[in-house]
Amino acid sequence: MKKISYTKVIVYIGVFIALDILLSRPFRMMGTPITFGFLAMSLAASMLGPVLAGVTAMLSDLAGFVLFPQGMTYFVGFALTGAARAALYGLFFYKKTRVFAPEPDATGAITLKAKRAAALKTLSKTALCSFIIYILNSTMIPMWYTVILPGTYWGFFGANIVPYTIAFAIQTVLLFLLFKYMDGFIAKNEVI
Asked: So what's the pLDDT on residue 130?
């Protein structure tokens, strides 16, 4: 059994909070729902697991609000949605196959077809995770807006569906590339 280094866990949580704030707050301040904070949270979930990733996401949301307030009061609903997203990343990528290796053929050679099949399998997994998060974002965020702002659910839903669709495509490709190039690092540095 692997011994848990709590110091290492706390350091990783701090690093992922800082990364999330750096990759998401400047874009949110420009008014777009498309940010790159998901890269930090997906790495956190891959290395720390779903529970600690959810805690990291909530702490990141709170720290981001304190450091970069955007004129509204703090609302915990957005933090809960962020924690749910991080937990989903953990369920998909923590201690699971992130990048599928090509299967050798009968002669032991790895063909181009096998490489493509492995890449497609990896892309399918990241696309499924991104799609579930797309559904979560496009349904939950408008609901939270109706709680804190005047307007209707369907009005907020309609206003955000196109940016969330664009974010889904961007997220799928970037997650695929992130795990393709960082899988060895993640596997070596899993904390728990």
From this structure: 94
48-61 pLDDT, tens digit each: 999 999 999 999 99
Number of H helices, E strands in the chain: 6, 0
| pLDDT tens-digit series, residues 15-27 | 999 999 999 877 7
Could you say which DSSP state residue 101 is in? P
Count of CB atoms situated within 10 Å of the CB of 102:
16
The backbone torsions φ and ψ at residue 32, rounded to the nearest 5 degrees and listed phi first, read -100, 140
Query: Encoding tokens for residue 166?
Result: 């664009």
**134: how many CB neighbours lie within 10 A of its CB?**
19
Question: What is d(CA 79, CA 141) in angstroms, rounded to the nearest whole number?
Answer: 11
Report the distance separating Cα 164 and Cα 171, nearest Å. Answer: 10
Which value, to the nearest 10 degrees, does the dihedral of the CA atoms of residues 15, 46, 40, 7 take?
A: -10
| pLDDT tens-digit map of 123-167 | 999 999 999 999 999 999 999 999 988 999 999 999 889 988 988
SS3 21: helix
Domains of the chain in sequence order: 6-188 (1.10.1760.20)
What is the average pLDDT value for the chain, to the nearest integer? 88
Query: Of 7, 71, 50, nearest to 58 (Cα)?
Result: 50
* Residue at 12: amino acid letter: Y
Tell me how far apart the 2 most distant CA atoms of the chain are, in Å: 65
